[in-house]
Every structure is written in C-alpha cells, then in structure tokens.
Amino acid sequence: MDKVKINNHQVFSLVADYTIGTTILSIISGVAEYAAQDAWIVALITPLMGFPFLLIYFYLAKLFPGKTLVGILQDVFGKWLGTILSAYIVFVCFLSVSQVVFYIGNFMKTEYMTETPLYAFNTFLIIAMAIGLMYGLECIARTSEIFFYIITFLVLLVIILDLPNVKKENLFPVAENGIIPILKGCLYLNSYVAWPLIVFMMFCPINVEDIQKTRKSFFYGYYWASFLNFLCTIMSILILGATITAQTNYPTYLISKEIDVSVITRVEGIVTFSWMCSEFIKVSVYFYAGLVGFTQILELKDYKKMIIPISIVLLVFSGVVYPDAQYQNMWDSTMWELLIGFIAAVLPITIIIMKKIKDGVRHIQTMKINEKEHYDSVQSLFYLGLAAFIIILSFFLIKFLLM
Amino acid sequence: MKVACMVFVILLAIFLSIRDIPEMKRQKSYKEMAVYVIILFLGVMLTILKANGADLPNPADVVVAVNSPFVAMLKGVLE
C-alpha cells in the first residue's frame, strides 16, 4: 500500500482538471464536424451517457478492494495475459503523455511563436512535470486544487465577456440531419470525457482512504468539467457558427479573440493560460498512472527513480508521435475511440463477467455442502446469461441503426 | 545546437548515474538498477539519433497495427 493519501476535494479537482484538458480547446471542433450546429446537444447529453461507465469502474473497485487495474487484470486473466494487457495500458498511458505534450507544443508553435522549434516547448513542460512528480502525487493534487479555481474563473470570465457577440440564428435548424450524427458525436466526445477516467483506476484505489467515499466527488468533478465543456461548445456554436467551428483547430481560442467590451480586447491569453494549467494536470495524471503501472508490472520498489529516464524517452517521442496533420486527424477521430473503447468499456465489462463466472463455478463446486448456495449460483448464472444476451442484442442494434 | 543537445543529454545521464546508482547498489536492488540503466541508455540513444535527424519509428503505429482489423469492422459507427 502506498503511504500517499489524497482527500476528497483533491480527487474532485484532479478529475475536473483532467477532464477539462484537451476537451475544452481542441475536441469541440471534432464534435462540430460530426453534429454541426447540434454540437451543444451532444455536449449536453454526453455526461449522461458516460455516467454508467463511471459506475462500472466503481463497481470494479468494490469487487477487488485495494487493488489497482494492473492487480485486477493479473488476478482475473492470470499472470501472463494479465501482464500483457496491463503492459498495453501502461504503454497507452505513456503514449498519451507524448501526445498531450505534442498538443501543447503544437498549439504554442502555431499560435504564438512560429519560428521556435517544437522541442523547446515540450522540454519545458516535461521538466515541470518531472519536478512535480518527483515531489509526489500529493503535490500534483494540491496544485490541481489551485488550478481548478483559476481555470473555472477564467473560463467563466471568457464566457461572460463573450455574451454580446452571440448570434442566436447560428443554432437553427435543430437536429437537421436526424439523431444519428448526434449519437456519433456523443461517442466521439465520450471517448475524450468519460472513458479516459479509467486511468484513475490505475492509482486511485491505493492512494485514497476509501474509494467508495470518493465516488461523490469523482462524479461532481466529472459533471463540473462537462458543464464547462458545454458552455464552451454552445458559445463556439453561437458566435462562430457550425462551419467555422468545425474547420478551425481551436474554437475556444478563436471566440476569446472576438471579445470586445469597451477597453477589454485580445484576452485570448486567458484561454491559453487556463488550458495550459489543465493540460499540465492531465499530463501529470497520465504519467503518474503509467509510472505506477510500470512499477507494479516489474515489481519495483519506488517509482521516483524512474521518472527522469522515462521522461527523456517520452520527450524524444513527443516530436515523433504525430508526423503530420493527416495522421493526427486519423488518430483522433478513429484510433483513439477504438483504443480507449477497448480499455475503458470492453475490458471492465469483461472483467466483471469473468469474475462472476469464476464465483459461479466456485459456488457449484461447493454445491453439495449447502443446497441454498446451489440455488444462488444458478440464479447468478441466469442473471449472467441475461446480461450477456442484452449486451449482444444492444451491439447488433447499434450496428443495425448506424449502418 | 546538435552538438550542444548531445553533450547536454550525455552529461545529464552521467550526473544521474553518479547520483542514483550507488544508492541502488547499497540497497541491493539490482532489478531496479537494470531497468534504470536500460531506460536511461535508451533515452540517450534516442536523443542522439533524433538530434542527428534519424527517422524514429512511431510508437503509435503499434496501436494502429493492433486495432486496424476493428477499424474495418466498425467503419459505419466511427465515421
């Protein structure tokens, strides 16, 4: 067990900052690409779609108390397959660090300093992150508490100052192309808002006092981030219109350029600053999760010695992961959904089903001793079959609807 | 710039080794030491290669290779 413990409010702010990062600046245009002027409906109903998955994660933590995702996988799938699967997840965590760092460097390079090489920005971010993690998780958690208020205040400030620019005819017509584009947008946004929270299962169960008591603050953080995301989406649509929102890379940055209230103009630095803060938390959480998984797989004593060597490798790869804009587009629109969908949706459900089957088999083995247990196991097998049937049915239904 | 980058990374690696490896030796954690040295060496090699303009393989291609069968299967849902 880790000695470092974080409290409920820190979990809340970590989840909120982690979810705001990336989403608030660059994902909105992707959503507008799918759903056009209905992007605000997507941002409104996606939190509800993601909610069952969070419940699944907490149920997972209840089934395996005190175990992280790596431990759970090794417990359920056995030593070898579990290690391969958890190595895949750790690999994805480290890959995400490189990608998010690239995002920040690329943003600074395209919007502010076009002559500076990409590695200059990436190096400073990686150094800051490495120093933060050398101090430990509680340092990152406390930082996120401060950053949370800064981000919330600045984003709300931008939204309020932007109110005079609103053109409400941009919202109409509502649901022009039917429900299907909205659902696709929901899937896309879900893969950036709700599913990445599986990363918290890599370290949360050993770093909080009682995981079930943090449930409420976890959900509050998730909903607060979704609310800010919704505000930014609807303002982008209202001010820029669907076409420009879909075409530009950073819609929120663009709407902050539009602000013109008496002497207050050109305040886009505000958005950049708050975005950098949340991205810093996002990178740190990914890196910490990857490090904890890494040390658990290799059974090392402490993660702190591994920080600098790994961050050198990640720094080099931060300039390699996205060779061009086309690759980035392909990755963000299809690959990431599949990847995180496997890790965060298919894998937890499979784990729960496997666990139930194992328990059922154990029940049947001890059946002769007690007749009541036999009844219970048969009942649980029946429920299991029902659940599997519903899952398969819903899969075919989705496929049929969307083909 | 190229030479400065290489020299900086090698100096950093030497400094880190001097700082960390004796401590690990004292604690007799040889596994940790092996992992540490391998990753540090990898980092230095990658930095030198990248500084000299080599085309490094993209780690994201591993994920693309693993997931490409499913992309064709779920094309209607994703696009």
UniProtKB/TrEMBL annotation, chain A:
Main location: membrane
GO cellular component annotations of the record: membrane
Keyword Transmembrane helix: yes
Lipid bilayer topology: Multi-pass membrane protein
Name the UniProt record assigns to this protein: Spore germination protein YndE
Origin species: Caproiciproducens galactitolivorans
Family to which this protein belongs: Belongs to the amino acid-polyamine-organocation (APC) superfamily. Spore germination protein (SGP) (TC 2.A.3.9) family.
One GO term (biological process): spore germination
Keyword terms, alphabetized: Germination, Membrane, Transmembrane, Transmembrane helix, Transport
Compartments, record wording: Membrane
Membrane-spanning residues: 12-34, 40-60, 80-105, 117-137, 146-167, 187-208, 220-244, 273-294, 306-323, 335-354, 381-402
Claim: Transmembrane is one of the keywords in the record: yes
TrEMBL record, chain B:
Record-given protein name: Uncharacterized protein
TM spans (from-to): 33-49
UniProt keywords, alphabetically: Membrane, Transmembrane, Transmembrane helix
